Hints:
heterodimer; A: 8 helices
Amino acid sequence: MRRNGAALTEIEAAYRLNLDAYCSVAAAIVGDRDAARDVVHDAFAAAVRTRRAFRGDGPLQAWLWRTVVNAALDRRRRRATLPVTTADLERTASPNGDDPSGGELRDALARLPERQRLVLFLRYYADLDYRTIGEALGITSGAVGATLHAAHAALRSTLEEVAP
Amino acid sequence: VNELDTSLALQLDRYAVVDVPREWEDVLRRAGVRRRGRASLAVAAVATGLVLASAPALGVDDGLRTLLDRDRPVVRLSAPLVGPNGLSGRFQLEAPGVLVVEPRGRRRVLPVIPRGRVPRGGRLPQATFWWTLTFRGADTATRAVLLRRGRVVQTLCAPCRSGASAELHARMFQAVPLFNGLTSVRVDTSDGVLRGRIRFLPRR
């Protein structure tokens, strides 16, 4: 059913409930956890301004995720740090993280094509289903499944290569 | 969950950003939205209370109650049509989106078109009416029109069959005469002319 805009309270509720996930995805895209909150706040400000344009063709959650992902991609483009590098992910990583197998996986993540990385982040950080991921990224549910499968295959291959 | 999923989830968990302070006011400030302060909300609540309390004295309590009622009744208007040689008929109007305020002791009623805001361009909100025309004694009519002070203000149909119906859009200033008996219907047929004055049918 089509709607005439999203309510401010709905957007606020989504912000309060999922801010950590939004910031995690934004940090992974931008490559800088310090900038993530700023990106998410800019994205939500844009969502608040344009909330009347939301027509309810898909879930509000997908619309908000698309806004956050686009804001993060814009910020990264402006920074001209095209692919996320290992150094970016190091900077993104939690200071307490200490996993001996983490280095290879981190490198493999950095080498993934952008769409595969985005699908992975939305799947693992935001715990979104295929349909919502598809609507957030403007692709079909089938494409989400295939992209996720390809990302897993690439990462599995990397892990097998480095295994003793 | 396979080994890769577990390993990947663990690795991604290391990058997760957690316990970010929620600062919704900052989002609103960036969006240029100003929230009403508690003081202004309290003033608005008191003002609303005063209006509701004094509504019966003003004679508009029924109208206000209707405004606040979610199940708004359909407003109906009707014009019995009479003509020569046994010609008769009826013109009916229904307006589901219009509310009517009937101040006590006043002869005129006031239609209200409830809309949240005036659309861009400053045009006044429109009310949508659904009209139906039925008549007996003639097969078809050459045309049916709305008249005000003897002048045609709207052509309803040409030619028309009995049972014809369509939408009619009217702005506030056009709707007021409809509700106050200042608009009539004329139906031209080959056997004569049917006429009738449109009256608002109050809900009793």
